[in-house]
Amino acid sequence: SVYVDLIRGVPPIVLVLFGFLFGPELLPERFRTQEVGLLFAALAIAIHSGAYQAEIFRAGFQSVPRGQLEAAQAIGLGRWRIMGFVVLPQAFRLSLPPLANEFSVLIKDTSLLGALGAEELFALGGEFGQQVILGGIGPLSWLLAVWTAVALVYFVINYAITRVLLLVEKRYRVP
């Protein structure tokens, strides 16, 4: 509860900056590089997403009606069998839509690493945009093309993941 409340209450950019700046300080001197800082920053994004995913699954578990648990106990199922045959299938099914949303947010949150110099999609778009403006590579309209391409790539990745999770959702839907 403390982990979930604390991590969800802090903006992800703050966690990314803390991970980048202070994460390497936890390691011996020879491992304190920018690459290790970026690794800690990526870990901070994972920790942030994990807090949201924990809440998604908690809500999924709590949404299983108490009467079904009592019915499973009444027919003699043990704790593990109740979890495996009654609770988990329903909690998984109910958690899929918000989990798909969280994955979409997680993909877009990787752009925060670009603020630290990581070579990811958003940062590469920014670098090329700077070359267009400062280097005189092409007309200013190319800048619009660069950011449109970046947006399209994010859209395609998110769309693909959303569609895959929709197929999983349909697979586990109760007829």
Task: Note down, in words, how this protein is organized.
With 175 residues, the protein is mainly alpha-helical. Helix content is 76%, strand content 0%. Helix 1 (2-8) crosses helix 3 (34-62) and helix 5 (79-109) packs antiparallel against helix 7. The protein is flat and about 75 Å long. The model has no long low-confidence stretch (mean pLDDT 84).
Compact description:
The chain contains seven helices and no strands. With 175 residues, the chain is mainly α.
What share of the residues lie within helices?
Answer: over 70%
The best one-word shape is flat
Strand content: under 5%
Element-by-element helix/strand order: HHHHHHH
Give the rounded overall mean pLDDT. 84
Largest sheet descriptor:
none
Poorly predicted regions: none
- Number of helical regions: 7
The assigned structural class equals: mainly alpha
Number of strands: 0
Oligomer type: single chain
| Rg, Å, rounded | 22 Å
The end-to-end span amounts to: 35 Å
